[in-house]
Amino acid sequence: MTSIGIIGAGNIGEAFARALVRNGIAATISNSRGPDSLADLVREIGPTITAGTRDEAASKDIVLVAVNWSKLPAALKGLPDFSGRIVIDANNPIEGPLFKPAELHGRLSSEVFTGLVPGARVVKAFNHLQPHLLSGDPAAEGGRRVLFYSGDDARAKAEVGALIERLGFFGVDLGPLSVGGSLVQFPGGPLPAHNFVRFG
Fold first, then answer.
1. DSSP SS3 for 67
2. pTM score, two decimals?
3. Domain containing residue 32: CATH number
4. Pure H helices in 39-88
């Protein structure tokens, strides 16, 4: 059974955890303040989510990272090489609370992120949908809500695509990070914040 870790317990990390719980999938969630600070949250989210340390979450087969952009380097610093495990980049290059675009010096945010997770097979996913839609019922108006994903490793994408399907969404592969990463990057890409539904 594939194990799942979540680094970051903000809006996206929590919404992803709720989607997992809805489908009976276990995961370990972490934040910068330690497991004790998450006790109330995991109790409220549901029985399949446990609080852990950052290192515990990072040791899983699939690790979703959703952290405030300016805090990403600190959140990932010092972790062991990911040794080919899958890391989902669910981050957006914006600085809260004013939603100011981060300075990327002409690079895609996924390029910057990949440099922070050595050895990882990075898949961009779960960043473009509003959190309440990610945590809610993926069945919508007679169809299934769409989740986009992209990456440079076909097997890693296939595993994330299978997880998306298991959560009840309709996954759409946008190709390599150089293409898909730009399409779903917020701000800048054309796809974030739109609620796409696939019929048939």
1. coil
2. 0.97
3. 3.40.50.720
4. 39-45, 54-58, 72-76
* Distance from C-alpha of 200 to C-alpha of 198, rounded to nearest angstrom: 7
Predicted confidence (pLDDT) per residue in 58-95, tens digit = 999 999 999 999 999 999 999 999 999 999 999 999 98
Whether 17 and 45 have beta carbons less than 8 Å apart is answered as yes
For 82, list phi and psi in degrees, rounded to 5: -75, -10
Please write the tens of the pLDDT for every residue from 142-197.
999 999 999 999 999 999 999 999 999 999 999 999 999 999 999 989 999 899 99
Structural domain that includes position 61: 4-198
Query: Looking at the 3D structure of the chain, how many domains does it have?
Result: 1
Q: How far is CA 153 from CA 4, 35, 62, 170, 176, in A?
A: 18, 32, 14, 20, 8
